[in-house]
Write a structure and sequence with these properties.
Blueprint: H1 17-30, E1 37-44, H2 46-52, H3 61-64, H4 68-78, H5 88-103, E2 105-109, H6 111-118, E3 127-133, E4 142-144, H7 154-170, H8 175-185, H9 188-192, H10 196-201
Parallel strand pairs: 1-2
Antiparallel strand pairs: 1-3, 3-4
Helix pairs in contact: 1-4, 4-5, 7-8
């Protein structure tokens, strides 16, 4: 459990989680300068390049949610990344802007990021983004080493995890049942002494 990665911030393949976060940070700094962008440098680790770096046409949502460049372009443009951003109707409406940014992206490996990704004491999933403009100026290089669901960011991650759990419960159960389930799951001693059938009964529809 200590090494579990929780996917909390974005519906994105894990190698891209920190890249998405960096893109969200950069969004307000470039929102009014999209047309002025000359190039976007994505610095990442070898596994991300091998698994999710893609150029050219993306045929469907599964293709898009495993494309590093796509998952960076959307939050650069909008300030967020949501599941619906991968769907065909969204892509049909916005692909010109998204693909325009993708074509400006240069993906580079940082050997240190790759080393730390495999280091058992770190297991970082680092990504960095820096944006260069046609007038010669640039943003700072925004580096995010660990996604919010990583063990090194547990303190800020747990409240997000709890909020995600509450939101998921609310899609299925009335408020009182949601509160009962959350209260039980928040009390480790009581949870460990709850018979399995009683625990499962809480997840049965009214």
């Amino acid at each position: 459990m200590e090494n579990i990665l929780f996917k909390l911030s974005f519906p994105a393949e894990f190698h891209a989680q920190t890249a998405c976060e960096a893109a969200v940070i950069l969004h307000p700094r470039i929102d009014d300068r999209i047309d002025d962008i000359e190039k976007i440098v994505l610095t990442t680790h070898e596994s991300a390049i091998r698994i999710i770096s893609k150029e050219g046409t993306l045929a469907n949502p599964a293709d898009r949610d495993h494309c590093l460049q796509y998952m960076v372009a959307v939050p650069l443009l909008t300030g967020d990344l949501m599941a619906e951003n991968y769907e065909d109707d969204y892509h049909a409406q916005h692909h010109v802007l998204i693909d325009g940014l993708r074509r400006k992206m240069i993906v580079e490996e940082d050997a240190g990021y790759s080393k730390d990704y495999h280091d058992p004491s770190k297991r970082s999933i680092a990504n960095a983004i820096q944006i260069f403009f046609k007038d010669g100026s640039s943003t700072d290089k925004v580096v995010v080493e660990y996604p919010i669901g990583h063990k090194r960011r547990r303190k800020e991650g747990i409240p997000v995890l709890e909020a995600k759990f509450r939101a998921s419960l609310a899609t299925r159960f009335i408020d009182s049942r949601c509160q009962d389930i959350f209260a039980l799951c928040s009390d480790q001693t009581r949870l460990e002494h709850t018979p399995v059938h009683e625990f499962m009964d809480l997840f049965m529809a009214n």
